[in-house]
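Weekly sync, protein design subgroup
Attendees: M.S., D.O., the rotation student, P.L. (late)

Item 1: inverse folding check
M.S. brought a backbone from last month's batch and wanted to see whether the design step gives back something sensible before we order anything. D.O. pointed out we never logged the input encoding, so this time it goes straight into the notes. Structure tokens as presented (197 positions):
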């Protein structure tokens, strides 16, 4: 952000009085707006139909052509559950019933929070929306583990199959962090609740 979205004046990066971290602050004395930047929420569904799960093949970047669970950025005025259901309708043309919040991951390196709900598809009615190349049901043995788009989806699926074997679905809370620099940079998942699969 270079110019104030309220008045068009230049923005400077400064710590406002009474604050403790740098913010985008409008340099106009008469405006002086502080433009806070906070994490975005991504809401989505892990969808069961019988023993199978519904995955979407991405028709958009990033990760074009890889498989994911339907999910996307929450819109203003929407509850997280409504956002998850809307994304499912948009990407998989499916109407599902939400059962529980299943995984929540803070992605601190990209300032996003993922909230994935376990949901049920009653009738096998689905088709690719505009952002999907293909939508299909996968049995556990068919999951394309090497072609999944995002680490959080990989983690969510691993927890799911582990929980299914135990016969109990708990909510799993964790953080995905980027550790190290340059070539040594790696992504690590740290679970707070629910354990690692
Ligand atoms: Zn301004």
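Designed sequence read out in the meeting:
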């Amino acid at each position: 952000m270079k110019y104030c979205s309220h008045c068009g004046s230049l923005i400077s990066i400064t710590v406002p009085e009474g604050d403790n971290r740098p913010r985008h602050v409008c340099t106009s004395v008469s405006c002086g707006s502080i433009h806070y930047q906070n994490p975005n929420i991504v809401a989505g569904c892990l969808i069961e139909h019988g023993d199978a799960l519904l995955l979407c093949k991405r028709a958009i970047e990033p990760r074009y052509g890889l498989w994911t669970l339907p999910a996307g950025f929450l819109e203003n005025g929407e509850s997280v559950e409504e956002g998850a259901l809307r994304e499912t309708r948009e990407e998989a043309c499916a109407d599902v019933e939400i059962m529980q919040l299943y995984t929540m991951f803070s992605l601190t390196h990209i300032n996003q929070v993922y909230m994935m709900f376990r949901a049920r598809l009653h009738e096998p009615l689905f088709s690719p929306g505009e952002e999907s190349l293909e939508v299909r049901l996968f049995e556990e043995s068919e999951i394309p583990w090497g072609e999944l788009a995002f680490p959080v989806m990989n983690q969510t699926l691993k927890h799911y199959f582990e929980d299914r074997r135990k016969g109990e679905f708990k909510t799993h809370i964790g953080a995905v962090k980027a550790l190290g620099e340059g070539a040594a940079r790696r992504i690590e998942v740290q679970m707070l609740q629910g354990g690692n699969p």
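Discussion: The first strand starts at residue 11 and ends at 14. Residues 40-193 form a domain with the Nucleoside Triphosphate Pyrophosphohydrolase fold (CATH 3.90.79.10).
Action: P.L. to compare against the previous round before Friday.
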